[in-house]
Specification:
Oligomer: single chain
Structural class: alpha/beta
CATH architecture of the largest domain: 2-Layer Sandwich
Number of helices: 11
CATH class of the largest domain: Alpha Beta
Number of strands: 14
Order of helices and strands: EHEHEEHEHHEHEHHEEEEHEHEEH
CATH superfamily of the largest domain: Dihydrodipicolinate Reductase, domain 2
Helix content: 25-40%
Strand content: 15-25%
Length: about 350
């Protein structure tokens, strides 16, 4: 029997928190031992306080866990944070200072100089940054983040091209699912039969996060990638899954066949529990990817890419799609934690 690592979930009653509970319910070496939320939820059994919105049943083992507040000591080594950005920054710093490994889905610390912004298949080397965090040498505590949900889809699609041919420019337009806004999402009168061409802060996050993720690891910091990027973000009436249309110019000119070959064959198998069989799948069907057909590929952890074709302004364009609350949020955090355990960063 493998001795399981005790984990807790901060923001356990929210949309990302519930997804974390759902995905971790039968994890082979993580065991949920603590749940934490706001003061109004603290002291209640999880089943009594949480309005469960996941399609599968609430795991039996968490139903009777008493929710604690987000400033109490927690019987766990790893804390997954699904906290709202309005409170996440201070709470995550508090727990890192107390010796916990904080694996965050929140935006607050993503651009901190000594906090890794990680997609393990792309930039696992950036995890070395956490050793620069004061708490790491003191008591083993640290903060690691995963990117924004739309950033992850674009990054997974563009990394094979960046690695093999370099990038000069990216122009992308997103079509983002309503679940990305959290529960209950966008009011039906605002989104049904409509497209909302504004998501607060999203475009700036995509641009800055891409530069950091694709940056080179220096002696004490990440040197941001130097390509130019422009993002336009839209909310569309899709329940789950973000679609991204991207045009790009490469440093080294490549043929369509070379681009597709890179997309198909760049990613390694990390051998982690949450690693999909295929990080990226290229679909030759000109009508793919589509949310209804591709959202659950790789149990929600695979990004589907299609429609590589010439661009009249830059070199090439493509369409990418991924599950925003799994690969783009909870699943990404779990994969990060698994990598940190494998890499010996969890003391």
């Amino acid at each position: 029997m493998i001795k399981k690592i005790k984990v807790g979930i901060l923001g356990c009653t929210g949309a990302v928190g519930q997804k974390l509970v759902s995905l971790l319910g039968d994890h082979p070496f993580f065991e949920i031992t603590e749940l934490a939320a706001s003061e109004k939820s603290a002291g209640n059994k999880y089943a009594d306080r949480c309005s469960w919105r996941e399609s599968n049943l609430m795991p039996e083992k968490v139903k009777n866990i008493i929710i604690k507040s987000c400033h109490e000591d927690l019987d766990a080594k790893i804390l997954f944070s699904g906290l709202d950005a309005s409170v996440a920054g201070e709470i995550e710093s508090f727990y890192a200072s107390k010796g916990y490994a904080v694996v965050s889905n929140s935006k607050n610390h993503r651009m901190d100089q000594n906090v890794p912004l990680v997609i393990p298949e792309i930039n696992s080397a950036h995890c070395e940054l956490l050793k620069q965090q004061e708490s790491y040498s003191k008591n083993g505590g640290f903060i690691v983040t995963n990117p924004n949900c739309s950033t992850i889809v674009l990054a997974v699609a563009m990394y094979p091209i960046f690695k093999n041919f370099g990038l000069k420019k990216i122009i992308c337009t997103t079509m983002q699912a309503i679940s990305g806004a959290g529960y209950p999402g966008v009011p039906s009168m605002d989104i049904m039969g409509n497209v909302v061409p504004y998501i607060s802060g999203e475009e700036a996050k995509m641009e800055s996060e891409m530069y950091k993720i694709f940056g080179a690891m220096g002696n004490s910091q990440i040197d941001p990638a130097s390509f130019k990027m422009s993002a336009s973000c839209n909310r569309v009436p899709v329940r789950d899954g973000h679609t991204v249309s991207a045009s790009f110019e490469t440093e080294t000119k490549a043929s369509k066949e070379e681009i597709i070959e890179a997309l198909k064959n760049t990613y390694p198998d990390l051998g982690l529990n949450f690693s999909p069989d295929y990080v990226l799948v290229y679909n030759e069907d000109p009508a793919r990817p589509q949310p209804l057909l591709d959202v659950n590929r790789g149990h929600g952890m695979t990004v589907t890419v299609g429609r590589v074709r010439e661009c009249g302004v830059l070199d090439w364009k493509l369409t990418a799609f991924g599950h925003n609350t799994i690969r783009g949020a909870a699943g990404a955090a779990i994969l990060n934690a698994e990598y940190l355990v494998k890499g010996g960063f969890i003391k």
